[in-house]
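Q: How would the structure tokens look for this protein?
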Amino acid sequence: MEYKSGFIAIVGRPNAGKSTFLNAVMKEKIAIMTDTPNTTRNNIAGILTEKDAQFVFVDTPGIHKPQQQLGRVLNKNAYTAMEDCDVIAWIIDVTQRFGPGDEFILNRIKTLHKPVLLLVNKIDKLSKEKILNALMAWQKRYDFNEIIPLSAKEKENIGEVLETIKQYLPDGPALYPEEMKTDHDENFRICEIIREKILNRTEEEIPHSIAVVLENKKIEDGKLFINAMIIVDRNSQKGILIGKQGSMIKEIRIAAQRELRKMFGMPVDLELYVRTENNWRNKEQKIKEFGLDELDEGTK
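A: Here is the predicted structure in token form.
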């Protein structure tokens, strides 16, 4: 029996549902999900191994018009995944109009000469007639190899997407061990869980200004002890994040601790600290230091 394997770049505008799609495909949480655009900052690979194929999905940051150096780095991470993949899965939010961000992605795709599947997401939010009109409009924009409507949130048509992608993967052996689900280590996943809890609880100015760095991790007497540093880029944000009498940071810590306990299957003691690093999103050295410029990660 022939075996297929390859890299699939999941691309799209911020909030199109890329991470929701990756988690639906993997049937477990690989990427954090929030309502905040540009939640995904790193190229995160989800590795799905089946009896006749291995899919290496690379969830990329949402391609957008960057305001800071960090935004430029995130776009670069996404472009690299597109260039190095075997198949491009472009996810669009069917409830949104075609805009400059889509034009930007389309122009990039045209230069790559790779199989492109257009995944029309969030069909659970529109009538059949509106979905049909949207599909017809997209068909005229580019000669996509396939156009598949789906709802990543409701896990609708996920099986069809996988079967279709498989047709475009090259023949070849598995690229990763069968038991491996992601290329990111547990330290990265700890930091992402903490960041997710912050994004879900803070005001608009905070989410894009934070980075989470793991300082220490050890197991003692059957308990996991974790120390993590939350970096913000202005002192005013530090106050918001800590909250009145430490209420906000306590809420974040308890929520993260709960999920980490499930992840590790043991009691977790999480300590969080907040530090201001003025304007870090415009400093290349800081972006690298916080693990956000990772061109070799998640690509071939």
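DSSP finds nine helices and nine strands in the chain.

Confidence is low (pLDDT under 50) at residues 295-300.

Upvote if useful.
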